[in-house]
Structure formats: structure tokens, C-alpha cells
Amino acid sequence: MQDIPSDSFSVTAVMLKQASQHPWGSDIWSLSGIVPGMSPIALKQAETQGELYYWPDLLVQLHPLYCESYYHNLMSGHPMIYLVCHHETDIPQPLLITVDYDEAASYMETGDLVVNALLSDELCVWLEAYVLTHYMPEKPKKRLRKQWHDSREKS
Predict the structure, then answer these.
(1) If we measure between CA atoms, which residue out of 130, 78, 125 comes closest to residue 101?
(2) Distances from the Cα of 44 to the Cαs of 9, 29, 95, in angstroms?
(3) Global model pTM greater than 0.85
(4) pLDDT at 55
(5) Distance between CA 154 and CA 115 in Å, rounded?
(6) 76 phi and psi angles, rounded to 5 deg
(7) Which of 15, 58, 84, 146 is the most buried (most CB within 10 A)?
(8) Structural domain boundaries of the chain?
(9) Considering Cα of 128, then 132, then 138, then 140, what sign does the dihedral take?
């Protein structure tokens, strides 16, 4: 019997804060990566670029309804993970971490800070197992053509 993959995974987000080069600009925040998945070498390189902030115990939660979006993320060639933050103070506060681009995009439209990073191999394997278990693509449907003229007309 095949093991059913878990629908959640706990990660630590590693955010990089860099000073803006513009005198009136605010700090630039980016998602360096997530642990597990970020190598010690990558962490050392990120430390040289700016100030690192860690947010442990963030939960990536999957839902069977959004498997199509997860599938497209995996098939993109560069699967991404998105961290949604409230940015009302100097330090953004994580609100959500997701692998669903559509969900992240809806937060972008509301003005929340959304940063992304490549999805680690370990999480790709987990996400792939979840998608294979819960996703069944719809079969393509043939469209019926509209009849633009009255069939009773004489030619």
C-alpha cells in the first residue's frame, strides 16, 4: 500500500535585509531560501550580502483543491515557494508560506509583501508525491462550434 503524503510541512524562512542604495529608498527584503533545503554554503553567502532574519516553524499547508496550481508550479522548471508578509513595521511579519502562485498573487494585489525563492529538492519531492496522490487532470473537451447561420437558408 502506498503511503499517503502529509498535507503540511514545517519550514524555516530565511529572509535577507539589504540597505537601499537610494537615499530615500527603504530596505530591500528578499527570501534567501528555506530550511530544510538551504545549504550551509548558501547561508554563508547570504550573510555577506546583508542582515539575515529567521522565521522558524512556518507551515506549508496543501489542499487537494489547489493541486492544479501545484502541478503547474512543479512543471515550470523552477518551482517556487512564496512568503507573504505584512509590511507595516520595519521588519515584515510572515503571514503565509505557500507553493500556490495564484494564492500568492492574490496577496500581491492587496499590497502585501510577497517574496519568493526556489523550492528545495526535498520539498519538490514532497509536493510531487502530494500532487500524484490528489490530482487528476481534466480530459480536454472538444468545443462545439456555434452555428452562425440558419440551416434553413437556401444557398
Answers:
(1) 78
(2) 25, 17, 26
(3) no
(4) 94
(5) 63
(6) -70, -15
(7) 15
(8) 9-134
(9) positive
